[in-house]
Amino acid sequence: MGGEPEDSKFEPTRGASHRTECDMRGVAAATSGSVRGNYLLDNSSGETPRRFAALSELFDPGTIRHLEKCGVIRGWQCLEVGGGGGSIATWLAHRVGPTGHVVTTDVDPRFLETLQHSNIEVRCHNIASDPLPEGAFDLVHARLVLLHIPQREQALERMISALKPAGWLVIEEYDSASMPSDPAVSPGEALLRTHLAMMRLFDDAGVNRRYGRLLFARLRAHGLTNVGAEARVFMFDRNSAGTAMLRANYEQLRDAMVDANYITPRQFEEDLAGLDDPDFMMPSGILWSTWGRRS
Asked: Domain for residue 42, yes or no?
């Protein structure tokens, strides 16, 4: 980019949402897999809109509650890493007003391009490898991002360094390993073969399925103050947003699970039909929301 500092493209600036020429190359790389790496639930899939809608319905109320507790006000400069469908970036844009600014990133930001707020800036960015400006943001938020990338510790360091003094970091990640479905303890809970197969795929891809539980200690270790954490669990039934999310994830990963011999096509179809059973119930993974403030 013509001799600019490598992180200058991230300086918060006023103006409409846009994508630079560099960003377009990033999208091409993401869809080819070179940037995406081992991320299994990439945004190029046809199931992605359903997953984003379910994630928003399921998790946005809790996320917004935590952001409100951080005191987000007009004029703040905010960064959301892994903006996904853009629902939280949109909430932040309303909250910070015309004097504030929201930068929202994704390795494949195709679903962020419809955001029309003049104070939202969309960027193609890979938090696993790309730099961030230091000391630029009053708030940095990410949800269900770091557990998927092997370079999660370096990514966390980048996000902390991007905070202004006294800026807030809010990170939300799953622990899907500590409390799986257990029909022996809670009769009626589903223990689907497809779900176990999906967990095996995540393990193969290097996902840290306990990462949410580790975040409180990691934020303390990085010297943040006012560190806190909250865990949330949902019971999914056939009509819940959580089950819609599971269906989208299962369908997106079907071929990979079958090709790995983790499940047969018949088993997959049986489990998918089971999601519509009136008696279906399944606990979610544990979503850990963790926050801290840069000193």
From this structure: yes
* Cα separation values, 64 from 59, 111, 170, 172, 211, Å: 9, 20, 11, 12, 21
User: Exposure string (b/e) for 256-268, b if CB count within 10 Å is 16 or more?
Assistant: ebeeeebbeeebb
- Please identify every stretch of the chain with a pLDDT value under 50, giving residue numbers as ranges: 1-9, 11-37
Residue position matching structure tokens 């004097």:
99
Matching residue, tokens 């961030």: 132
Triad 140, 158, 84: Cα angle to 5°: 50
Q: Which residues have a Cβ under 8 Å from the Cβ of 213 and sit 6 or more positions away? A: 175, 178, 286, 288
How far apart CA 45 and CA 31 sit, in angstroms, is 10
210 phi, psi to nearest 5 deg:
-110, 10
What local confidence, expressed as pLDDT, does residue 39 receive? Answer: 82
Beta partners for residue 264, in sequence order: none
Residue 168 belongs to some domain of the structure = yes
Backbone angles phi, psi at 97, to 5 degrees: 70, -175
Tell me what pLDDT residue 10 has.
56
Question: Does a structural domain hold residue 197?
Answer: no
Query: 66 in a domain, yes or no?
Result: yes
Q: Which run of H or E residues covers position 139? A: strand 137-143
pTM of the model as a whole: 0.90
For the chain, what is the domain count? 1
What tokens were used for 76? 């703040």
pLDDT at 34: 40
CATH at residue 108: 3.40.50.150
Range 204-224 burial, b when 16+ CB lie within 10 A, else e: eeebbbbbbbbbbebbeebeb
